[in-house]
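Anyone else keep sequences and structure tokens together like this?

Example one:
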Amino acid sequence: MGKSVLTFDQLTDKIIADFSWRRKELTLLKNKIPESKNSLQNAMIRATMPLLYAHWEGFVKISLSYYLEFVANKGLKHKELKNQFVALSLQKKLGNLKENSIESKTQIIDFIFDRVDKQSNIPTKNIINTKSNLKYDVLEEILFIMDLKDAHFESQRDLVNDLVDERNHIAHGEHKLVDYPTFIEFFDDIIALMEHLKKQIENSAILESFKKPAPNNGSSQITGLVEKV
């Protein structure tokens, strides 16, 4: 992905650039689709729907990979991170420990507590796995790993699943047509969901939501959220 994502500005620049070119390309194609129903409209909708899905999946993978790299490059101690990121940092070593006895489970607990004060080593390669079929359950797992789940994503479950289904119908050569109003609804909703993800990442980065809240922390919290770009 090129230069390491070390600062908030680098993170937002990369995510905004990725979102912008995707939105521009999709908008150019959408604007070429005739509003009147005809053979060209049908062909262009069938050609654009898989690309709409591809840009959605691509943005999820790229933007969250940037965010993960941003968090990893903080070099925080395990005790400073939320549990999802601790699990990522320790997953390779934890995978070598068996869990089929109290003794071995105790070893796992000891292993974790022994590393609480040590610097994390969060892997960034092949963590954001969209499985080339980004159904909502796959998205939900990714959002959990990144601690970005929220009610809005949950409310878009049907949209995410329907987009995958429509992409698959076309990719498998089925003669299933999406009408123009339905396509426009897909287009607008997916662009909005991409923008929501972008805002979630930006806000989580500036608020340092990846950190474990300090107990009885009386310090003031950052309240200025990122404005839409």
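And example two:
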Amino acid sequence: MASATGSARAQLIAIGEDQTLFNWATDMAQDYVDDFIAIEGHRADVNYRVAACARPFEVTWEHHYDAVRAVNANDAYLDHVRRWDAEHGAQMVLANEPNSFFGLAALHSRNDGRTTEEQRRVLEQVGPSALSAIRLQRALEHRGAEMLRNSLEAMRNAAILLDSTGRVCAVTPAAEALLGSETVQVRSGTLRAMRPDVDASLQNIIGSALDNRKPTSELWLRTVRGPTLLEAFTLPRQDWAFGFAPRVIVTMKSPLGLSGAHPDRLGAAFGLTRAEGEIVSLLVQGHSRQQIATIRGVSVQTVASQLRTIFVKCDVNREAELVSIARAVIEMAAG
């Protein structure tokens, strides 16, 4: 599109609630996007291009930019576009929805000059095809979130999926069972904790995962029902995505994540003590030996010793075997 409109660069932008979701321009360094975010270039009172936006598929250009700038010329944005040599051009709104905005633009440099009527006509013709491509990409990203949620659900994982903006895009049934005022809640599309200090820690581990500062972060929550472990895992970043695909998985593990009767059922099935049944139940939920020791208030050596006894009683040699047959028993009991 850039060459067809005589433009130094073509730009596709998606702006969501309070922040830029996606800003891609041909032949433009990442510093451009960082600079745009730093000056809050998504705001109409900052960016004359945003202020000049019209209805979907209506082209606006320098004539409209001039009118906005005559009333309110924002120095920060003017410095930005002049620094990146993209002051002129034309644009089109592709979609303007409650939580997201999509636009296509031809960015002209000083050498390109102001757009011509023919160049703007090309932009007008390209718009519908660009919107079709956006809708397909969004569908693929949402489908990816659904597929991942279904996989986690099938494995009975208590998991919450967050997109690149930190908003919740999926919650498994097992996680829904653990949500509450003592743990965490989904409020206005975000994951929050009731206590301010806990919420600050929660937002910190989510932020670390989103920024990939720490690929895995954990937070212990203390409740009257016992401790619950939250872990945030960073998913691989996609080079071309609008931000709706899952970016972070937050898992929840609790001693009561499974029914309180399961330790007794496991004990009855394998001839285990109550304590041994609880250890197997925790293993099934995905807890490590160290985590089980923390939950039960004993040493890792004590857990290892108990597991050796459990292996003998269950006639297995490895934890994976133990978890597999324990899951089968739980499923039989649930059926």
